[in-house]
Amino acid sequence: MFLARSAIQFAAVSVSAAGLIAYRAGSVGAERQLVWFDRSGKELGKAGDPDSAGHQNPSMSADGRRVAWDRTGGGNVDIWLMDLQRSAPNRFTSEATIDAYPTWSPDGSRLVFGSFRKDAMDLYLKLASGAVSEEPLLATPQPRAPTDWSSDGRFILYRSSQPTTGYDLWALPLESGGKPGKPFPIVETASEERDGQFSPDGKWIAYESNESDRSEIYVQRFPSPEGKVRISTNGGAQIRWSRDGKELFYVALDGRLMAVPIQFVADGHTINPGAPVPLFATHLGGALQAAARQQYMVSPDGKRFLMNTIAEETAPPITVVLNWKAKP
């Protein structure tokens, strides 16, 4: 399910059998602000300005200097880039369609993203300099969105939406010269698996799954499914690795950022996760973000977090109708 946020509508109405109706007209908007925090939750500074235009799916380059995200403007979803030192955002795509889920190449020279150029969301590639127009990377009948790019540049991880199984995780190998190879499934079950992240050495993936009837975080070997281990203990979403691979971060279902120490066993096929440690409340609008990906990023040194926080929410007033009676 990949929908433009401007096309998603919700009814805000409640009816009582006692003859009372409460409803809210119009829509609810929220400003998002990129904010730096340390591990204790102390605010360190802001990046850019507050934005009410559907500011979603932020992705940080490996050097920690640039951020990409998608936002809605004029009924269209495009990708924007920002140099964190200058905090001056620039539009990266401008097609009259949905361009979303930007993901950096490991060297920061390119971005892969999802785009509705045809009948479904396909994968496209574009130089970060913007010097060359987008080129199609993968097109299939099922919509897909990139979630990560391996540190050696050889694989792009993406989630694919299937009619019967929902989200599944697939990998797209890149051959010499960047030519796409044949994609293959990583986790494909009746449950929903999403938002996978490569470990820094590319030998493991962490992902979110609802196989236990609740969103939890798992890690398994890549590309084989060996050594699967559950990381979260009481629900979780929005997984990220530290740059050295010694920690995993996720957002608990109560909205707190959690840190899990990771120890790799010498055999190379096993990991020992430690107990999750709560860091701070994230203010991201909840752990579960519908079709969106992670709403935060980890600095290269693992000591700071750039959070796509909800800065301000505005809502129309609630209207109450008394003595309402249903028509027979």
Task: Please describe the biggest sheet, giving its number of strands, its sense, and whether it closes into a barrel.
Answer: 5 strands, antiparallel
**CATH domain class:** Mainly Beta
Number of helices: 0
Any idea how many domains? 1
CATH homologous superfamily? TolB, C-terminal domain
Order of helices and strands: EEEEEEEEEEEEEEEEEEEEEEEEEEEE
CATH A-level architecture? 6 Propeller
**What form results from the Cα inertia axes?**
globular
Measured between the Cα atoms of the first and last residue, the distance is 38 Å
Compute the gyration radius: what is it? Answer: 21 Å
Sheet-strand content, in percent, reads over 45%
Question: Layout of SSEs?
Answer:
Layout: E1 13-16, E2 20-24, E3 29-38, E4 43-51, E5 56-60, E6 66-73, E7 76-83, E8 88-91, E9 99-104, E10 110-115, E11 122-127, E12 135-138, E13 144-149, E14 155-162, E15 166-173, E16 184-187, E17 193-198, E18 204-209, E19 216-221, E20 229-230, E21 237-241, E22 247-251, E23 256-264, E24 271-273, E25 277-281, E26 296-298, E27 304-314, E28 318-321
Description:
- The protein has a single domain (31-314), classed as 6 Propeller (Neuraminidase).
- The chain is built from no helices and 28 strands.
- The chain is mostly beta strands.
- The strands form seven sheets. Strands 21, 22, 23, 24 and 25 form a five-stranded antiparallel beta sheet that branches. Strands 4-3-27-26 form a four-stranded antiparallel beta sheet, with no helix packed on it. A four-stranded antiparallel beta sheet has the order 5-6-7-8, with no helix packed on it.
- The radius of gyration is 21 Å and the shape is globular.
- It starts with 12 loop residues before the first strand and ends in a 7-residue tail after the last strand.
